[in-house]
Write a structure and sequence with these properties.
This is Integral membrane protein. The protein is mainly alpha-helical. It has four helices and no strands. Helix 2 packs antiparallel against helix 3. The protein is elongated.
Length: 155
């Protein structure tokens, strides 16, 4: 029995989860912070952190592992240009994601304190939030390009 279709399925599924969890958590967090309601900000930021640990991290690891396996099974040299660019973009995205997760954790802590103490969300928290949004965009576009490279293998 060939494991190839199973590996492809797991790879596509993990890519879907990885991409979707990024979009969904961004929507949840941004909506809560637009409303500026302390309870919503605290709860949504906590849930976003949990979602990253439960969905994004496992799917990111699975995505990398199955990608390496598929390149090997398909006898595609790792020096193939689309593979090289996929690895570069994926690595860049993961580095940004690690930074974003740290920001999310700080944001969640500050939002929790703000909610419990009934104080305004601090300026440093808004700075973290702005950086969280700014760093999310290149990650999003990197993943769009990675999808395109995997599907079309143009170079």
């Amino acid at each position: 029995m060939s494991y190839f279709p199973i590996i492809v399925f797991i790879h596509v599924l993990s890519a879907t989860i990885l991409f979707a969890s990024g979009i969904i958590t961004a929507i949840v967090m941004i909506e809560a912070f637009i409303r500026k309601h302390p309870k919503d900000m605290a709860l949504s930021s906590q849930r976003v952190v949990r979602a990253d640990w439960y969905m994004t991290l496992p799917s990111a690891i699975t995505q990398a592992a199955t990608g390496i396996i598929l390149v090997h099974l398909m006898n595609i040299p790792f020096s193939t240009l689309w593979v090289v660019w996929t690895i570069i973009l994926y690595s860049f995205s993961i580095i940004l994601w690690v930074i974003v997760v740290q920001l999310q954790i700080h944001i969640a802590e500050l939002a929790q304190i703000s909610w419990y103490q009934k104080t305004p969300f601090p300026k440093v928290g808004w700075t973290y939030f702005k950086w969280w949004v700014v760093l999310g965009w290149p990650t999003f576009f990197c993943f769009l390009i990675i999808f395109w490279l995997m599907v079309t293998r143009p170079i």
